[in-house]
Amino acid sequence: MKILVCISKTPDTTAKIAFADNNTKFAADGVQWIINPYDEWFALVRAIELKEANAAATISLVTVGGADAEPIIRKALALGGDEAIRINANSHDSYYIASQIAAVAKEGAYDLIFTGKETIDYNGSSIGGMLAELLDMPFISLATKFDIEASTATVVREIEGGEETNKATLPIVVSCQKGMAEQRIPNMKGIMGARTKPLKVVEPSAVDALTNIAGFELPPAKAGVKLVSAENPEELVRLLHEEAKVF
Amino acid sequence: MVLVYLDLTDGQLKKSAFEVASYAAQTAKLLGTTAQGIVLGNVTDDLSSLGKYGITKVHTVAAATQFDAQVVTKVIADAATQLGATVVVFSNNLNGKAVAPRLSVRLKAGLVSGAIALPDISNGFVVKKSVFSGKAFANVSITTAVKIISLNPNSFNIITAEGVAEVVALAATVDAPRVEITATNKVTGEISLTEAEIVVSGGRGLKGPKTGV
User: Fold this and answer.
1) Which of A64, A78, A172, B120 is a plausible cystine mate for A87, CB 3.0–4.6 Å?
2) Residues in B 30-89 with any Cβ partner in A closer than 8 A
3) Residues 14-43 of A with CB under 8 A from B
């Protein structure tokens, strides 16, 4: 079974969000970059678990980004990927990114494609669905459990107000979220081995972006916190009603 | 024309459907056109009442009751093309997140997911969305002829007025789903988190004396 895991580089969850160049781009100076948590903790780790259960499985990683994305790819390889492909392009347009990954996926003829449910920077939740449409594959979103038997996948996914169990025949695209797996930390053997694992750089295909970011804004500064004594719940109710107007 | 996908749960319109209906109608007003809805599946609600939210016509498709994003995408894509929609609106709920990206590819239409405001058409077609997990906003310009917006739930004030929507059946080819639903486990009698108007979160300070497990 050939598994492709889509990896994205995102700012650390504690990074200060600021913008540069007249609010047209993210201010990346001093920012620590990480693997998008949904890609790492749930998509990649579940793929590793599947490989541990089936020695014949292989895990390829794919990312769309510049050379500055390589440290996070090496970390993903240290966790358990077998090889990685970096598509040498930078874009914030989901269609452009999905089209690049689809070109790699078509060439690799993967049985299973995992993505995280969204990236924590642009929060698009779009790559999995776009990829599935580009590849004419079924797409199961927001998966919390994934099992496989022969060529049939059984996937539990979140629906509004509960969960649903789906079955689909491979190949499929699955977006992964909390519940799929538990976070792992790469060990020394993995870190050392990752240095020599293949990391192929490919040039992007000619694809037109469908959107572009005109600019960013920060929300207005929050007003100060009002502390209400635990002995005075009536005041809390009054503030929620008259000032916050929540009811 | 602005086409809005109106989502159902157990044959009834979801709360988010009224919000996106109103959003689509206000978008149509900005563009000087009309807003029409599309509903897939069997509905028990009176769809003509969507006229109150500014929808002029609702197209119903007798589809399989099982939700499959690939099937829904094809039906909406065919309808959008047939009806000449230039903007397609979804709620950015779980179903919207599964369908809107597929539709973007099928129609080669730019998508803004997680929109929080009406489009700004003063200089192109720019939609504001939440980014960096709510810590900032991005103004995203859609450059394609057909545009897709998925609206974050509870981010738009519903506007109502007098009106009755025309309800018509739309002939559509509905493919067999490729994903089989074998079990559904839903909590009944409670409002789902995404449909809730007010969410109260509780906790306690770490510094106090009563923080033990």
Assistant:
1) A64
2) 68-70, 73
3) 17, 19
